[in-house]
Every structure is written in C-alpha cells, then in structure tokens.
Design a protein that fits this description.
Helix content is 27%, strand content 24%. The chain is an alpha/beta fold and 239 residues long. It folds into 2 domains: 127 residues, 3-Layer(aba) Sandwich (D-Maltodextrin-Binding Protein, domain 2); 91 residues, D-Maltodextrin-Binding Protein, domain 2 (3-Layer(aba) Sandwich), CATH 3.40.190. The termini are far apart.
Amino acid sequence: MDRDLPAIRKDTLRIAVVRDPLVYEERPGAITGLEYELLERFAAFVELPLAVVVAPSPDSLLPIVQRGEADIAAGLLNPHGAYEGKLSFSRAYRHTAPVLVQLREDRRLGKETVAPQGPALLPATFPFDAEGYAWSPDSLQLIRDAARQGEELLIEVILGRVDRAVLPDVTLRAEAARFPHLEFGRTLGPEVPLAFGVRRNANRLRKALDRWLKDPDEQEAREVLTQVYGGDLRPRGPL
C-alpha cells in the first residue's frame, strides 16, 4: 500500500488502536487513552481530521496498517519488538520497564505467610522482548495471556485468580490509584522506548511525527498529559 502524507491530506488521518487504558478507551461521554490523546494533538498539528480504527487484538495492528486501513499504529509499541522491520517507527514519546505486581501481603485473606508461587501472566499488549524474555529471572515462569489486557489482569490478581503479573510500569502508574490492594515489585528489566508505527514507505508521515514530537510546545503538553496518566508506585502503608 502506497499511502503517505500527501495522499492522507486528501482524505483523513486514520489510526489503528487497541483497547487499553493507555491507548484507547470508550467511556460514557468521553474517549480516553494517552496515545489517542497524543495522536489527537498530532492530527491538529498537521491540520488533518482524525478517524479511529479499533483493532480486535494487538496482533491485528500490523495487517490493518499494511493494508492501508489505517496510517498509524498505536498500541504501546516498542520499535525493537515484534514489529521491528515490519513497520517504520517515530521517535520515542516515552519509555517503560517491566514490573512485577501481586496482591499486597496484608490483603491475602489469611495467607500472609505464603508468597505467590504461580507463574506471572503477561498482558496481550506487552512491549518487552516477546521472544525468550531474557530480562526475566530464571525462577519466574512467564505466560502471555493473549486474551486479556493489563487492567483485566490486575483485577484477576485482586480477586486471587492469578498469583501475579508482569506489566509495563506505565500501565501500573495509570492504574495505581484505582487498585490500592496491589503491591508493585521490583523492575525486572531495562526500559524500552514506546513509539508510533507507520508503513515503511510512509516516510513523510514518519518525519511529520518526529517534527511534532520534537516541537517544544508539544513536548510540554505531552509531559502534562503523561502526568495525568501517571501515578506513584512507591510502597504503600496499611489500607
């Protein structure tokens, strides 16, 4: 598909998104999601109308963009992850690291002395080392849950149906205030960049994204938006 910025200007800028609190969510009376709000700003920056294509799963982002159904992929994407070489990526708009999360010891319903022993589940949207999880300790068994996103896994941990999970720290920061029952463990690996993906032949669109990301006024606005979707992961006192 040959569709770069000049062709998009004759039409509409279309973004492919996954349903995730940090990417795109439809709520009563509002649409939220950090990446969606950032791309709204980009559309205004380049003076283009914006349309959203919701991907049924993270794995659907690539074919949707490659077929020309959307122009930008948004899904907590790591340029060095599964889509490396398949999409072209903007500059990073922020960085994230994998963090272990489990139920707080004082909320384990009489099981305070029993540390979680089961595998840690990974959400469907997961930007870290999709092959081999080289950053993970050998003692920690990891299983990707392709059917559930981070918010859903956090609820499963709270309900005791999942012992623990590994999620991007940016997801945990966004959800920390909502889930005081959870304990956020140590960072398990190095930070990775998060960026927006475009077709490999859409060079003008990628360069426009980079100009927008480098714009001083937009950098300031992005910092404010990021703080809105952030939270504190420091140890908490008793509930």
